[in-house]
Amino acid sequence: MKSNHYRPEWTEKAPPAGTYRSIFKYGDPHSFKHPSDAWYNMIKQEFHLSDRDFSAKGREGLEQVSLNRCANLASHQIESIRNIVGGDNVALDDYSRVKYASGKTTEEMLELRHGIIREVADVVVHPRDKQDVQKIVAYCNGEKIPITVFSAGSSVNFGCRPVRGGISLVISTHMNKLLDVNELNQTARVQPGMFGPTYEDALNRAPELFKTKHRYTCGHFPQSFEYSTVGGWIVTLGSGQASTYYGDAYDIVFSQEYVTPAGTFRTLDFPATATGPKVNDIMKGSEGAFGILVEVTMKIFRYMPENRERFSFMYPTWDAAVNASREIMQSEFGKPAIYRISDPEETDRGLKLYGMPDMVDTLLSLRGFKPMQRCLSLGNVEGDRDYTKLVARKIKAVARRHGAISLTGYAARKWEHTRYTEPYMREDLGDYDILIDTLEAAVTWDNLHRVHEGVRAYVKSRPATMCMTHASHFYPQGTNLYFIFIAHMTDLEAFRKFQRGIIDSIQTHGGSLSHHHGVGRMIGPWMERHLGKEQMDVLRALKKHFDPQGIMNPGGQLGLDG
């Protein structure tokens, strides 16, 4: 068979129940996204592989989960927990203990492929309501039982690992409802375990469900949107793909209710106050280290998809794309909702991913948009009809001044169609030891090129390694850079060392440790170097206040303990 016609045996079936693969499988068990033929051929070329290397899979993780670790809690402690939440909401089986101890990092997926199990909880608990949470926290505080909060499990920083055992507290099983929509205040009161699509659908249908005059949107659409929860967005300071217009999770939280070992409290429902430092802000991004989010009031926005204006441009260089983007964000004529620019490597590899015809490639080259120099930009504008038309027109004018040509809205529509499905490819490629991972960093405009060049240089110092970078989530003062690296690797420790080296490079070159994925336990060791001892001392003091026994998400979360 000719090499360019060969297709590997990509997985097409849902993982068998009870297997390691069923835990690390991303998203819908029955959904898949296979690499295109162009991508497959590109991977072979980049990593010096042949069809033969794709004729047999590596470790697939199809074995049944086997833990063989007894719970360390005493029988009377387990019985007390059952009495609080009901027997049906307590699990001690091996599969549950492993499932609710795992996020979606590449490292965790690699470990599970090989049947490697790190830390697990002694018992998995599914609270029915905030009263259950209050009772569980009070009981565990008295018994000094650690609690690790689990919502959707989409964490990419070891945020779900019960490093010190105890309880995995699963919020999303029962606490997953939209409680109220206040149209006068334009807010929604929601439980933290509600998944993104369910939340958005309920807001879109608010006239039918809550008798509102208008339809609404949450405005928050991370790549993990379909398999992440409202609470997860808040406690990790998430950022959705439309954040340039709607704001990050930090911006759209109105008020919150938390259960902590020090007590339960709700922050105030005011659009603004001048009553000292705000506890509401302190709890955002706390990652379960201070307490457990049990209810939140969110800002919501008018839903007007009929007014959406899409755009896409090709810039001749990365400098041109960056300079145009800065001008757009600082011009004060309005903001796009989604806006992103891809660097030369991501642009060219992305064009292969989306299957750009050779004729289009040739035409672009003839017009001066050379491979490995040109940069793709795409996005959309949302809001009132007059507003969207104005902003789209202004963006187009800026792009043209910087040498870009319009690709109409085609590229944006193409990207929108697949924007939630890209992570599915990780399983296909992982079957053949092709690893994909992403790290991100906020940068100011004056430091963007230093971070971009420095981190790329580190990634590319490893032979045969792809490094695709784009900027998304824009502000007048800067943006966020995503570094997507792809490598052929079989050694877990080598991957771990390489990934930690990228984190170190980001910090060394002046990028933030995280823009919106949170800190977890993965990035915790860099926190003091990044923030400084004085700021970390403030966070440690807050930890001591809210959680004097150290039971909340212990084991390195936010770098607050060992």
**CATH topology of the domain at 178-302, anyone?**
Uridine Diphospho-n-acetylenolpyruvylglucosamine Reductase, domain 3
* Sheet/helix structural class: alpha+beta
- The helix content is 25-40%
Shape, principal axes of CA atoms: globular
Rounded Rg: 24 Å
CATH class of the domain at 178-302: Alpha Beta
The number of helical segments is: 22
Q: How do the strands line up in the largest sheet? A: 15-12-14-13-17-18-16
Mean pLDDT: 95
Contiguous runs where pLDDT drops below 50 for at least 5 residues = none
Q: What gap, in angstroms, lies between the N and C termini? A: 55 Å
Please report the total strand number as a whole number.
18
CATH architecture of the domain at 178-302: 2-Layer Sandwich
Biggest sheet layout: 7 strands, antiparallel
Our estimate of the beta-strand percent is: 15-25%
Describe what this molecule looks like in 3D:
With 562 residues, the chain is of the alpha+beta class. Among the domains are: 75-173, 2-Layer Sandwich (Uridine Diphospho-n-acetylenolpyruvylglucosamine Reductase, domain 2), CATH 3.30.43; 178-302, Uridine Diphospho-n-acetylenolpyruvylglucosamine Reductase, domain 3, CATH 3.30.465.10; 305-419, Alpha-Beta Plaits. The protein has 22 helices and 18 strands. The strands form four sheets. The chain has a seven-stranded antiparallel beta sheet with strand order 15-12-14-13-17-18-16, sandwiched between helices. A hairpin with a 2-residue loop joins strand 8 (253-260) and strand 9 (263-266). The radius of gyration is 24 Å and the shape is globular. It starts with 19 loop residues before the first helix and ends in a 16-residue tail after the last helix.
